[in-house]
Amino acid sequence: MKKHSFLIGLAAVMVSSCSNQSNNETTLSGLVPKDFQTEINHSPVNLYTLKNEKGMEVCITNFGGRIVSIMVPDKNNQMKDVVLGFDNIADYINLPSDFGAAIGRYANRIKEGKLVIDGKTIQLPKNNFGHCLHGGPNGWQYQVYKVIRSDKKELELMLNSPDGDERFPGNVTAKVTYALTEENTIQINYEATTDKKTVINMTNHSYFNLSGNPKQAITSHLLYLNSKLYTPIDSTFMTTGDILPVKETPMDFSKAKKIGQDINHYEYEQLKNGNGYDHNWILNTNGNLKQVAAKLTSPTSGITLEVYTNEPGIQVYTGNFLNGTVKGKKGIIYKQRSAICLETQHYPDSPNKPEWPSVYLEPGSTYHSRCIFKFSVNK
Fold first, then answer.
1. Could you tell me if 333 and 278 lie in one domain?
2. Fewer beta carbons under 10 A from the terminal one: N or C of the chain?
3. Among the three residues 139, 171, 205, which one is the final residue of a domain in this structure?
4. Is 202 within 8 Å of 141 (Cβ atoms)?
């Protein structure tokens, strides 16, 4: 997994509390809600379950706004869990990860943790190869979202991030809403407001393996990206500021191909720098939610995931830091490339690259971002 500082001073005490599911009822994915009931920094944590009439199930914890499991039918109409994660809250606390998280304040990296707002330089934490990654070591994925509304089809979460949270300016109120439709679609809506100029870039960090078996690498998955350009990185995974064409390079997914087709061609500098794919692609969609941004298919299960977004970019991360040291749901050890992340976003380090789409949020304005995960079966 991506490297992070460990949580310091985060105490969890098991308490009796309620979610939208019985404590003793096991979810379709095999999760036990009581294993997610705790209190962190005096805030209750639970497991919440969304279901539709077709049998699809999505389980979410308000610790980090994390998607814990997604159950969808495969080509044989067998239900499969297609995301990585843990089966208890203790592991989410004690084994820092981004599994399924609602990332903030700033998804991806900010160079050297330096942020300039109105001429003032702000030094953010450096938690990844000398840069600030995913909002710092105590970003929103390690904080408890307050549950505003919960029912069978929708979960609305809110987080109040104080001025100076991980040294970011502004008191920010952020909302994340997960909605499950009858079309086997997960709609994720993000909103944020601030009382002081700041930067916002939110995303979901689910690790997908559409085979439903994380013991199998995702290198056989077929990936399509609606993109002709990408932002190259240096050896510290930081964007260089360049924008390059994907044509006739291993970065070209403008026609669907196996993820593993070129991934080990480390003679190509970008794959060496990324230890595989860990790059931002510039989308051709121009924010149009009706145009597919990415499409992922498992030939084994037939399960297909289409991604739609109003964001200008998408980060593709092929689980390069999963190294066999973490044991996830059902005791399965997560090895390198056992999952892929498709993170809709503004480009990495955009605050320091003014020619790129802006991530600044002013008082009186509202940040809006949308991501849609649409599941289907290719028989």
1. yes
2. C
3. 205
4. no
Residue 44 lies in a domain: yes
The answer to whether 343 is a known catalytic residue is yes
Note whether 189 and 251 are same-domain residues. no
Tell me how long the chain is. 379
Token look-up 């379709």 returns: 28
Q: Are 374 and 185 in contact, with CB atoms under 8 Å apart?
A: yes
Amino acid at 351: P
Domain range for 365: 218-377
pTM (two decimals): 0.94
- 118-175 residue pLDDT tens: 999 999 999 999 999 999 999 999 999 999 999 999 999 999 999 999 999 999 999 9
Q: Which residues of 33-69 are buried (b: 16+ CB within 10 A; e: fewer)?
A: bbbbbbebeeebbbbbbbbbeeebbbbbbbbbbbbbb
The Cα–Cα gap between 243 and 230 comes to 6
If asked whether residues 310 and 361 sit together in one domain, one would say yes
CA atoms within 13 A on the CB side of 314: 29
Residue 156 lies in a domain: yes
Question: Given the structure tokens 């993109």, which residue do they identify?
Answer: 227
Give the model confidence (pLDDT) of 42-99 as tens digits.
999 999 999 999 999 999 999 999 999 999 999 999 999 999 999 999 999 999 999 9
CB contact at 8 A, 64 and 76: no
Number of domains comprising the chain: 2
Comparing CA positions, the residue from 181, 179, 186, 189 lying closest to residue 150 is: 179
Does the annotation mark 166 as catalytic? no
Whether 232 and 85 map to the same domain: the answer is no
Q: CATH no. for residue 290?
A: 2.70.98.10
Nearest-angstrom CA–CA distance, 158 and 345: 20
Same domain, 198 and 223: no
Can you tell me the distance from the alpha carbon of 187 to that of 61, in angstroms, rounded to the nearest whole number? 16
DSSP line for 105-152 = SB-SEEGGGEEEETTEEEE----BTTBEETTSTT-GGGSBPEEEEE-S
Q: Is residue 134 part of a domain?
A: yes
Q: Which is catalytic among the residues 131, 205, 221, 346?
A: 205
